[in-house]
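Reading a protein record of the kind used here takes only a little practice. Each token is a code from a learned vocabulary of local backbone shapes. With that in mind, consider the following protein and its fold in token form:
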Amino acid sequence: MAEPARRAATYEDLIRLPEHLVGEIIDGDLYASPRPTPRHTVSSSGILIGVGGAFGGRAGGPPGPGGWWILDEPELHLGADVVVPDIGGWRRERMPKIPDEAFFSLAPDWVCEVISPSTEQIDRVRKKRVYARERVSHMWIVNPIAQTLEVLRLTGAFWQEIGVFSGNDAINAEPFEAVTLEMARWWETE
């Protein structure tokens, strides 16, 4: 006996999720994850402050050295997929101004995923494929428990690991190698 056809998730399904969940649609499947843990938030905030402060400039002010928009949890509508990276960055030459919609349909140039045990598989496999398909040029995968950063560059259709950093390293990592970032600011400390 044939199984009934599965209905693809819709944006209405996302809207119906409780506010304490982050919803995404990948390959027609709905994923609902709890809001990030404090440890996750410390890492994401530290990266956002470091990268955003150095490269994003401030609202109404001049852009940073790389001319980027660096944004916290942007909702991306990429084809039929709706994904929410922890941080996304667009070069201002590709996106001169922020769109008026509540989401972005232009893929970022860089994404940062701060993984947790509940989201690691989705971030490392399913979302990574979406980002490659949409030609996102760089991806960072941050593990706040292991205190590691993996830096990936899209080469053709495949991700190439170009650096792995850990602990309290001071780093110059693509695509933000113009500024030294202090990883010690990304981790929960006692």
